[in-house]
Structures are given as C-alpha cells and as structure tokens.
Amino acid sequence: MSGAMSGVTTGAMTADTDVLIVGAGPTGLTLGIDLARRGVAALVVERADGLFPGSRGKGFQPRTMEVFDDLGVLDAMRAAGGTYPVGMVWQDGRRVGEHRMFDPVEPTEDSPYTEPWMVPQWRTQEILAARLEELGGRIAFGREAVGLEQDDDGVTVRFGDGGALRARYAVAADGGRSAVRRALGIGMTGETVDPAPMLVADVRITGLDRDNWHIFPPRENGGSGRNSGSGGSGGDFMTVCPLAGTEDFQLVARFPEGTVPDLTLDGVRKLVATRSHLAPEDVTEVRWASDFRPRAALADRFCAGRVFLAGDAAHVHSPAGGQGLNTSVQDAHNLGWKLGAVLRDGAPAALLDSYEEERRPVAATVLGLSTGIHRGEVRRGRATRQLGLHYRESSLTQETRPRPDGLRAGDRAPDATVAGVRLFDAFRGPHWTLLALGTDAPGDVTPAAVRVVRGGAHDTYGAGLFLVRPDGYVGWAGETGAGLTAYLSRVGLG
Fold first, then answer.
1. What is the reported pTM?
2. Fold for domain 82-115+195-293?
3. What are the tens digits of pLDDT across the range 328-358?
4. SS3 string of the chain?
5. Which fold has domain 398-490?
6. Looking at residue 381, what is its pLDDT?
C-alpha cells in the first residue's frame, strides 16, 4: 500500500503520508475528510475488511449537526435519517403511556439545529466514506495496526501482515480497545457504569409500528411479556427503536449480572417473546448483534509525541444520552485544522498541544454527563445538545475586551444573518472567519486564508471583532484589531 503513495519528505526519512489515521469509524473518517479538504496527505487504515455494519451510535446532537454542516455532509445525513420517535411504554401487551426522552426545542437563528437526529452508524459511515473519497481521500481495509515506533521526524506503524507505513503524525481512532493506545503505554482511568451485560442488535420485526420507540420495562416478578415468569430480574428492560431511513429496528436489552447474552436469531427471538407480547417468529432477522457492559473511561493522555488519541481510543462512554459518537466527531474536528495548520500553513508544532488541553476536559465533562444519564440522575436536555461546550480556558483563546458581555472568546460561534449573509454559510470550509460587527475590520492584518464578514452590531454577538476558528469556535475577540496580528501568526496565518 505504501508503494502506491507519493511520499512526503520529512527529516532524514521519506514518509508515506502526512497523517496516518488508524480506524475507519466516524472519528477517523471525519478527520480524514477535514484533512483532505485542506490538501493534507492522509490515509485511513482499518483492520476490518469493510465499514462497521451495525447501528450502535445512532444519534447526532445539534453541535455535531453543525460540524456536519461545515464538512459538507449535512444534507446527506438529513436525507438518510429522521427525528427520534416518542417512546411508547408497554405492559402485558397494552400501551400504558408515553415517554419523552427530551423536551422539544424550537430552532432559533443562532441555533438552527436543536434536536437529536437519528442515523444508524453504518449509514453514517457510508456517507462519511463517500465524502472522503469525493475529496480524494482513501481507506485501506484489512490493515490491522499491531505496534508503532516514533522519533523526532515521524511515526512508523506496523501491521499484522508484516507491512509498515511511515507518517509525520499518526492518530489512534481505533476504538475503546485501541491497539495504538496500548502500544503507547497510555492507561485508561474509569469505572464500570453498570455491571449488568447488555445486548444491542439490528433486527427485523413484525407486529410493531414504526411511529414509536417501544419500551418494555421490567416487572417486579421478572419479565413483562407472554412468559413473564421466565424473564429477567428487576431493571432488565428491553427497548425496540425503529431506525430512521431503514426497515430495521435497534433492539437494546439489559440482562442480570453473570448472564451471557445469546446473540443468535433463536436467542433474540426468545428474549423478545419473554419480555414483550410478541411471538418468537415476529423476529424475522438479526442483521447485526453485539454485547457489552457499560463503562466510562478516560485516557490518561490524549497525545504522546507525534501520536494523538481521538474518539473511543481516548474516552469510552455509556451509550445513554448519545454523547460518545458526538464527542468523538468533535475530537476530529478540533484536531484536523490544527494538523493542517502545522503541516500546510507553517504554524508551530506547539499548536498541537492545544488538542489535549481543549478536548480532554470536554471529554471528562461529557463522561460525567453520560454516566449520570445512564444512572437516571440527569435528564437529557440543554447539556446533551453540546451547544454550550466551550474553550474559554484554553491557552489558544484570547479575549482582549475588558468587559465582554455575553458571547466570549472560546465559545461556540452562533449562527446569525449579518448584512444578508448567513454566518454558517460563511464559516463553512477549512478557513478562518473574521466578523467585523459595528466596527471596521483592520485592513492590514487579514491574510487570504481569513474570510471577512462585515456588518452592524448584532444581538447575539454585540459589537467588535470576532475571529472564528475553522472548527466554529471564537478564538480571538477584541474591540479593536490590537493583538490580532500576533494571534494570526501564532496559528500559522501571519
């Protein structure tokens, strides 16, 4: 594979690529897209022979929808999915009530996406992979990373087939059991969120409508179905959710401690018949199935030398609240522009230190949130939408206004319409954006890589200068242009 790549000169050794991304999940594919649109040579390698086939991570939070807008895949994601259905609670074959996981929120000018959007993970990865290929990026399947070495100039990743690839930087996006993380000797600190095993499966079922997320809670005597005496213990629930854009349902079930879930068609049929009013034959197909034990863990570090951890390789979440995949995609969105700045724009390598500085605290916060939701201590709401995540404390953030009111440097840059220009349209792409609102844009400090939007003071932003990073956060804010030139030089735009 390396022989088919043009080679990138670095130090005394020629690299096969600028960035080697290990793992073709949503994290690795997102990063590959971001690098490809910046003209950075990158290769995604995946140990499996194809993309992940299951629905596992099926929900996007509003902040991730904004990321997909920036990457040019939002229309495809919206066409492939749908909103979450209202939960319908069943008992003894009767509908006994509705359950809403979150309260609906009306879109506003500054936040056009306010509710989670459902797309099964396999379809998400198909869309991301197609976008990557459209931009000239590539995925090499059947390449299992088993070890690595690095030096001052680059990283050599070794594969199970005996081959190796050399890159200037490498990114571990290879999941919770990351081989790259283990090779680096980076530990994971965490806890078991729930000791009981769970099953998740994509199934075809007759006898249930597709307008509701069907919830089969446990009964005190064990089970809630046709054969309630043979069901699980208290807390051993089952849910069956129609997967938007498909004919499938995602089935999730919790089992008593010590149980080994049966992932076969017969096993799933028995489970459904035990815990619901459905007959075994109503389950016509099991298309994919997996078992797991919910846990929460955070990598002790997110980088080591020239290797970075992203996604599940850096943080493992309970699936409750739909935070894991979303945090992972946002890791990639944060890291991509920084790698591009160092590799293409001449930014100092020290810029990459801000990746761990910014993303590890976010991951820690989100881990606490998802664990609280799993345990019933926290309700899904404003925090789970992830629009309030910020980098105010980052060393990369500079707020030069003496008395900022409302929006501050480090915050997510909201949408708005300024002088007839929609800001999300202006932000879209790999560039920086300078908003000059109610003040003049300094004409001598704006390089070609910065798009300028001029207009009057805006209710959401107020008045001033706001330099918006490529990942949609305000990096620098000021009343005048004093200090802006130095900041631009720091990020490779001087």
1. 0.93
2. Alpha-Beta Plaits (3.30.70)
3. 999 999 999 999 999 999 999 999 999 999 9
4. CHHHCCCEEECCEEECEEEEEECCCHHHHHHHHHHHCCCCCEEEEECCCCCCCCCCCCEECHHHHHHHHHHCCHHHHHHHCEECCEEEEEECCEEEEEECCCCCCCCCCCCCCCCCEECCHHHHHHHHHHHHHHCCCEEEECCCEEEEEECCCCEEEEECCCCEEEEEEEEECCCCCCHHHHHHCCCEEEEECCCCCEEEEEEEECCCCCCEEEEECCCCCCCCCCCHHHCCCCCCCEEEEECCCCCCEEEEEECCCCCCCCCCHHHHHHHHHHHCCCCHHHEEEEEEEEEECCEEEEECCCEECCEEECHHHCEECCCCCCCHHHHHHHHHHHHHHHHHHHHHCCCCHHHHHHHHHHHHHHHHHHHHHHHHHHCCCCCCCCHHHCCCCCCCCCCCCEECCCCCCCCCCCCECCCCEECCEEHHHHHCCCCEEEEEECCCCCCCCCCCCEEEEEECCECCCECEEEEECCCCEEEEEECCCCCHHHHHHHCCCC
5. Glutaredoxin (3.40.30)
6. 58
